[in-house]
Amino acid sequence: MKYSSRITIIGLVGFWVLVLAATSWAQERAPILDKIAKTYGIDSWDQIQAIRYTWDGEIPGLFKLSHMWEWEPKTGKVSYEGTDKDGKLVKVTYDSSQLASQSDQVKNEVEPSFVNDNYWLVFPFHAYWDKSATVTDQGMKKLPIGTGTARLVSVKYPAEAGGYTPGDTWDLFIGPDDRVKAMAYHRGSDKKPSLVIASWTGYKKAGPLLFSTEHRGTADGKPLHIYHPNVAVKLVGSDKWIEAQ
User: Fold this and answer.
1) Which is nearest to 169 in space by CA: 182, 183, 186, 153?
2) Cis peptide leading into residue 158 (ω within 30°)
C-alpha cells in the first residue's frame, strides 16, 4: 500500500491528531516495526480486499459514539454508517482518494473519523507504512497501565511535518510475542487531551490479519473505552466475509 499525498488526520473524535506523510516502499524503516507488522499480518496485506468493523468509543460524561465502516484498501472506497453531532443517522459511501469532490460533511466529519478509527484498528500497519516518524527502541519499561514490563518502541512524528498537532508521539509497549500490550499517546501541542493511555487486548484473527479489539485506559485521567466489535475481512477473489475470532 502506498500513499501518494500527505493526509492530515484528526483522532479521538477530533481530540488528537497525527500526520501520515508521503512515503515509498524503498525507504528504510526501523527493523522492530517490521517484526511488529509481520505479527499483525503485513505479509498477507495484498490478499485483503475489504475490512469491515465497528468503532465504539466512550468517555463517560463526554461522548459515546458508534461508527460502522467498510473499507477497500486497494480502491480507497469507504462506506460509513453512524450519527452526526445532532444525532441524525448518516450513511455514505465515498472514494477517499477523491476528497475534493466530496461534501463538506464527508471532508470535515466522516473522513477524519474514518482515519482516526482506522488508526485505532491497525496502527501497527500505519507505523510500518509511514517512514516520516523517528522510531526508537527504549528497551524494557514499566507498562503505563496494568502491571509488568514490556519493550518500549517510541514512534515520534516530526514537528515540521505540519498538521494540527505536529510532534505527536505514540509509545508502543511490545510483549515478547511482538504484539502491542499497551499504548501511550503524547500530544505535540497544548490541545487536549495531552495524554491518552490505553491497553491493547481482546486479540482476534480475521483471515490472515491480527486485531486488538479492546482498549481501556484514560484520556487526561478520564476513563476511556474503545472497542471494535464485528471485525471481518474479505479476501481478494471472494465474496465471503471472514469474521474475527
Assistant:
1) 186
2) no
Which grid cell sits at 101?
469532490
The model carries a pTM of 0.86
- Give the span between the Cα atoms of 109 and 113, in whole angstroms: 6
- Residue 205 burial class via C-beta count within 10 angstroms: exposed 0-12, middle 13-18, buried 19 and up: middle
What is the DSSP annotation of 92-152?
A: EEEETT-GGGS-HHIIIIIHHHHHHHHHHHHHHHHHHH--SSEEEEEEEEE-SSSSSEEEE
Q: 3-state class of 165 per DSSP? A: coil
Span of 81-85, 115-119, 159-163, 186-190 with lowest mean pLDDT: 159-163
Angle at 103 between CA 7 and CA 23, to 5 degrees: 15
